[in-house]
Amino acid sequence: MSELSESRIVRIRNASDINIDFPSDLSFFSPHLSHYVKEILGIGGEAYMSKSSDDTMSGLFIYDDAEKTGTSFTRSRNVFDYFYKMRQFNSLFAELRTEHECETYDIYAIDLDNRGIDHSFSHEISVAEHGDVREIEHFMALTHPGINRKWVGVALDEGDKCFIVRLGNEIGGLGWLSSANRIGRLHSLYVNPQFRGIGIGLDILYARLIWLKSMRASSAFSEISRENLPSSRIALKGGMSVSGQVFQYFKKDPSSKTANPAYRL
Q: Would you write out the chain's pLDDT as a tens digit for each of its 265 residues?
């Protein structure tokens, strides 16, 4: 009998269901899964668990219908196949590589416990407050087409930090971070094309690493597409190194892939 035929799918419907002990071997992202579920439910998305007959969790699937994007957290091919067919999507992130068309993202990581962080900043960095939500929503809607705008306010409510460089009266670049179980995740770095090449991206990276270290985070990671060479170079300059991969799958029209893996991988 297959692994999935012995399993059941359980929908996570509200915050009271989120106090779940995700197995450490379920996913590289296990320390952050509760955080991801809170955010996906907060923006009106869906979350499902796959559980085996002995009540062991074998997978987690989160999905945003507004963006038509999802993420499958599992090491089981059978569970992945079920989640892959579960919803119509433009893109789906997963840790398993299969025969389906996909783009590779490298996971860059850094050990903060055993590494000093030192950087001379070229630009002033500010940390977003709730009063900045509309400005950030506007910026991210322009730079991450198709984004669910609800995500910005929910992310800030759930403790995510947004680090911003402003040049004059406009945002030159920004980058987000979340932290769970002393592990930081750096995501959604974007620098306005007209301001690239002047060190904004590197300043935002170091600002986030310094903040995480001040909060006693032990490590940090970031998923970067292999097609995104500027972000890969910034990560390497910041002392990060490749420690694994995740994959973005496309369905139907590959040109409709979403640029924002903000609350996902």
A: 355 556 799 999 986 666 678 999 999 999 999 999 999 999 999 999 999 888 889 999 999 999 999 999 999 999 999 999 999 999 999 999 999 999 999 999 999 999 999 999 999 999 999 999 999 999 999 998 889 999 999 999 999 999 999 999 999 999 999 999 999 999 999 999 999 999 999 999 999 999 999 999 999 999 999 999 999 999 999 999 999 999 999 985 444 444 444 333 3
In a domain, 255, yes or no: no
- In terms of domains, do 86 and 153 share one? no
Whether 252 is in a domain gets the answer no
Between β-strands 46-51 and 8-12, what pairing exists: parallel, antiparallel or unpaired?
antiparallel
Domain annotation covers residue 231: yes
Tracing tokens 């300059």 back to the chain, one arrives at 237
Q: What domain range is 205 assigned to?
A: 109-245
- Give CA–CA dist 165/236, Å, rounded: 21
Burial class, 158, CB count within 10 angstroms (exposed 0-12 / middle 13-18 / buried 19+): middle
Residue type, 130: H
What are the residues facing 57 on neighbouring strands? 51
Q: How many domains does the chain have?
A: 2
What pTM value is reported for the model? 0.90
CA distances from 164 to 132, 136, 193 (A): 10, 9, 15
CATH code, 177: 3.40.630.30
Q: Are residues 92 and 193 in the same domain?
A: no
